[in-house]
Amino acid sequence: MTLSRTPEPSADVSGYFDLERGLVDRTIFSDGALYRQELRRIFAPSWLFLAHESQFKKPGDFFTTFMGEDPVIVTMGRDRRLRAFLNACRHRGMRVCRADAGATKAFTCSYHGWSYDTSGKLINVPNGEDYPGHFEQDKWGLIEVAQLDTYKGLVFATWSPEAPPLREALGDMTWYMDAMLDRDPEGTEVVGGVHKWVLEGNWKLAAEQFASDWYHVNISHASALMVLSPTGKGPKKDIVQTPGRQYTDPLGHGAGFPTHPKSRFDDRVVHEYYDYDALRERLGDARVEGPTTTGHATIFPNFSYLPVNGSIRVWHPKGPDKMEVWAWALVDKSMPDEVKNAQRLYNLRTFGPTGIFEQDDGENWSECQATAGGFVAGGMTLNYQMGLGLEAQDGVHPGTTGRLYSDGAARGFYTRWRDLMNTPAWHEQPKAAESRTAEEDPR
Fold first, then answer.
1. Which UniProt keywords apply (predicted)?
2. In this structure, what CATH number is given to the domain that contains residue 145?
3. Residue 19 is assigned to a structural domain of this protein
4. What is the pLDDT, as a whole number, of residue 237?
């Protein structure tokens, strides 16, 4: 029951990149028209992270979030199945749920009282007798996502009925994800709620950094590394210049991780909890000595995580120059309560909204955005050449990897972004035009 919509104009973004030479036009971080195109062609068709399964324990539990800028309700129905719906009443479009999370039997719009059950069905219309005879109440339920699926506790959804299955969309990235998600046979859970904060900066600045950027660590986080080092003088040179690998996925995902045995900036209580021999038996040496350490990763387009402190987060776009960060603390289910709490506190101290690392990152992104509106500065060419030509199949880690200090995964991220931006999504297919042509030419 959808009316035809005049398509918005779309730009060919090929001219903003020369990724073979590692060059990017900075306009992609500030142009309002490109941002609108992102909502249509990046966020609408992609699998997006919504929540963690542990947030839903009984029927009626719900959590509200966003897919791009579309408000969404994720809820467990009476059949204990997770569903996600557009958080907008079918009558006038007002949100039917304005709470962050909770439990309910129905979602009722506070404007005119239309009410929906947890399966999205419209169950009550005040003054229903005043509607015409052709009003079909059962066709006016909440708009449901086209697909919803989970991967080891993480809940994803997409608006596209044509998107490949989630597991296929994650590709080889699952091998790297499992270094955080599969350490415990019982799985993972989130603790401590959701922390949210707003930053002046384009969402891609954060997503690309978590995919590819170990380069900034020793510079931007120098003071934090001094605080965390045993001597208070910072880590030793061989740890500062740590060896490592960076994974670049053709689907736009990316991950980087040290491989030095002492490159683990994790909490002492958590570190002492783990049986590393058992982890090696479960995950293999390559994962325990690589992506299980102090690494970083992004699932295209806007879900990122840090394995060592269990930080998972979404970079919600709020315009071309603003993002809202939502972050959870992820722990293994089998951890004793005191270890879970140690992980949660360490998460907050390092990558919470006031964390000693997080504040550095936010400052960097905001400063990058601060000059993006200038005529000259906003259209300058940016250099993404680090590690160019050094990626290869290393025989140890799945897929294509390069050196830890590299822009390789960022180039992969923007290759995927460029290709999607230049490809009409399922909702842009000319069905209406085809229908009109068929009427005019019945052949």
1. 2Fe-2S, Aromatic hydrocarbons catabolism, Dioxygenase, Iron, Iron-sulfur, Metal-binding, NAD, Oxidoreductase
2. 2.102.10.10
3. no
4. 66
